[in-house]
Amino acid sequence: MLLGYPVIKAEDMPDIAADSLSVAFGNFDRGYTIVDWMGTRVLRDLYTNKPYVHFYTTKRTGDAMVTPEAI
């Protein structure tokens, strides 16, 4: 805990260095939103690779910073 907030270690953040932004602090639930636009779509391909059936899936998502002051 840091000032009453939980601390989460993210391996994909840059290493600590002089010119590095290695720490992020804020309420990410309030400040950032990830949106699922259409759900998952499945396409069944019967013809390309006979005798097998291939399935192609796609998922359309988006994201936005909704409250920059929260982060």
How would you describe this structure to a colleague?
The protein is mainly β and 71 residues long. It has a domain at 29-70. Helix content is 6%, strand content 37%. A two-stranded antiparallel sheet has the order 1-2. Strand 1 and strand 2 (54-65) form a beta hairpin. It is elongated, with a radius of gyration of 20 Å. The relative contact order is 0.25. The model has no long low-confidence stretch (mean pLDDT 89).
Q: What is the ordering of alpha helices and beta strands?
A: HEE
The CA-CA distance between the termini, in Å, is 17 Å
What is the total tally of β strands?
2
Mean pLDDT level: 89
Which segments are poorly predicted (pLDDT under 50) over 5 or more consecutive residues? none
What is the helix content?
Answer: under 10%
Q: What fraction of residues sit in β-strands?
A: 35-45%
- Looking at the structure, what is the overall shape? elongated
Structural class: mainly beta
Largest sheet: 2 strands, antiparallel
Count helical runs.
Answer: 1
What's the gyration radius in Å?
20 Å
**Widest beta sheet: strand line-up:** 1-2
